Amino acid sequence: MFQKLMIRTLLVFSVILTIGPVLLVMLQSISFRWMWPDLIPHQFGIQAWYVVFDDPNLIQALSNSLIITAAVVMLTMCISMPAARALAFALFKGKTLIETILMLPLLIPLLFIVMGLHLTMIRFNLADTLPGVVLVHLLPTVPYAIRILRTGYERIGTIWYEQATVLGASRLKQFWTITVPMLMPSIRSVIVLTVVITLSQYALTAIIGGGIITTLPMIYYPYFNSANQSIMAAFTLLFAILPIIFWFGIELICKSVTTLIRQP
Questions:
Q1: Strand partners, 31
Q2: Which residues contact 48 (CB under 8 A, 6 or more apart)?
């Protein structure tokens, strides 16, 4: 009885900690002049949402954020999956050195790396462009993706691939029938983490984008200078919607892929 009570208490406490801040921000976004120490706002209104949607750069920022995030997710998966497989299964000279180089963006401050890359991107006409921003966003995402996927590959092991090879399955067949289904939890984790990292990048986008490529963080952070808490809350909710949309899209795609694989 005591154990069930503790579990229910922890569950209620977890729900409050998870949903409570969201409800508070939602209430803040539709409040008007909610001053301390009032427990609830005395006036309600959607003026803050009007201010947010009246921003002339909002549509362009949303579009750029969606394009950049989708491109970074695809490129991250294309780069990290073969790299993670090689690090998990292959044996070759200099493996430790290559792994260390791949993990360097996690050890060295990104701003230090990006300042050097900025000159290179200027020479290749990638500065102040959307492709340049996409490429620089790979710096924080690829190392994490390789780390996660390598663990997934090591969990699968080589025995499944050896049995498939003996039965005559091609590399492509092995990828769709072994790698994708068994690596799906790791793939989900990589995609979600990549989306969150990409959508939250401000400094990398500002340096490589040069203020020309605007994303949601570029127009979101200046609102912190505003004394209007309702505007900040409204923009926070809008900023939080994108990861949720991506998450639902990822789940639909993963379920569709899993269904297609299971079909005879």
A1: 44
A2: 29, 30, 228, 230, 231, 233, 234
* Average confidence (pLDDT) per 10 residues, the chain, 264 residues: 75 77 76 68 75 81 89 93 89 82 79 81 86 90 92 88 85 84 88 88 85 83 69 80 80 75 63
Q: What is the pLDDT of residue 263?
A: 62
Residue 258, domain member (yes or no): yes
Q: Which of these, 223, 227, 243, 224, lies nearest to 54 by C-alpha position?
A: 223
Quick one: tokens of 113? 């790396």
Instruction: Judge whether 15 lies within some domain.
Output: no
| pLDDT score of 10 | 83
CB burial string 210-234: b at 16+ within 10 A, e below: beebbbbbbbbeebeeeeebbbbbb
Instruction: Report d(CA 72, CA 192) in Å as an integer.
Output: 12
pTM for the full predicted model: 0.81
CATH code: domain of residue 222: 1.10.3720.10
Q: Are 76 and 145 in contact (CB under 8 A)?
A: yes
Residue 43 β-bridge partners: 32
- pLDDT tens digits for 57-95? 888 888 898 899 989 999 999 999 999 998 888 888 878
Task: Specify if 41 maps to a domain.
Answer: no
- Rounded to whole angstroms, the Cα distance separating 45 from 88 reads 56
What distance in Å separates the CA atoms of residue 176 and residue 78, rounded to the nearest whole number? 15
Domain span including residue 233: 56-262
In a domain, 31, yes or no: no
Q: Where are the beta strands (DSSP E) in the chain?
A: 31-32, 43-44
Domain count, the chain: 1
